C-alpha cells in the first residue's frame, strides 16, 4: 500500500483524535460537537482514501473497498450528528425521534467495527504478501 507523507499522516492522526473528541463531547450536548467530529471524519476518511493499493491481490482490493464503506459511514455519522441537533428536516416529531435522533451512534459503531476488522485483516494480508517477495 502506498504510504502517506508526513503531512498526510498528521492529518490522519489529528482527524482520528478529532473524531474521538467530537463523539465524546457530544454526550454533553455541546453544539460544536458535530463540527469537531465532522472535520475529523473528513480528514480521517480523505487520508484513508489516499492510501492506494497498486498490487493485484484480490483480497487486499476487497478489504480496501470495505474500508471505503466504513469511511462513508463515518461521514454519514457526522451528517446524522448535525441532524440530531434539532428537527430541521421537516418531519413529524415522532418520526424524527424514531429515525434520526441519536442514530449517528449506530452508524459510528458499525463503521468502527468495520475499521477494526479491515485493519487487522489488511495487516495480515500485507504481511503475507511481503513474505512472498
Task: Sum this structure up briefly.
With 133 residues, this protein is an all-alpha fold. The protein has helices at 6-25, 33-50, 58-83, 93-99, 104-132.
What is the succession of H and E elements? HHHHH
Low-confidence stretches: none
- Average pLDDT confidence is 91
Helical amount among residues, as a percent range?
over 70%
How many strands appear in the DSSP assignment?
0
**What's the N-to-C terminus distance?**
14 Å
- Summing up helix and strand content along with how strands pair, one would put the structural category as mainly alpha
Key terms:
133 residues; mainly alpha
Architecture blueprint of SSEs:
Elements: H1 6-25, H2 33-50, H3 58-83, H4 93-99, H5 104-132
Would you mind describing this structure in some detail?
The protein has 133 residues and is mainly alpha-helical. Helices cover 75% and strands 0% of the residues. The chain is built from five helices and no strands. The chain has helices at 6-25, 33-50, 58-83, 93-99, 104-132.
Amino acid at each position: 500500500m502506498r504510504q502517506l507523507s508526513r503531512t498526510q499522516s498528521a492529518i490522519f492522526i489529528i482527524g482520528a483524535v478529532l473524531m474521538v473528541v467530537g463523539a465524546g463531547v457530544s454526550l454533553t450536548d455541546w453544539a460544536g460537537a458535530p463540527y469537531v467530529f465532522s472535520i475529523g471524519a473528513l480528514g480521517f476518511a480523505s487520508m484513508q482514501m489516499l492510501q492506494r493499493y497498486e498490487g493485484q491481490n484480490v483480497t487486499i482490493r476487497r478489504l480496501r473497498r470495505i474500508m471505503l464503506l466504513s469511511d462513508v459511514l463515518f461521514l454519514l455519522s457526522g451528517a446524522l450528528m448535525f441532524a440530531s441537533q434539532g428537527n430541521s428536516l421537516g418531519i413529524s416529531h415522532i418520526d424524527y425521534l424514531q429515525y434520526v435522533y441519536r442514530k449517528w451512534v449506530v452508524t459510528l459503531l458499525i463503521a468502527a467495527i468495520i475499521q477494526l476488522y479491515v485493519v487487522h485483516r489488511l495487516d495480515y494480508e500485507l504481511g503475507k504478501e511481503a513474505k512472498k517477495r
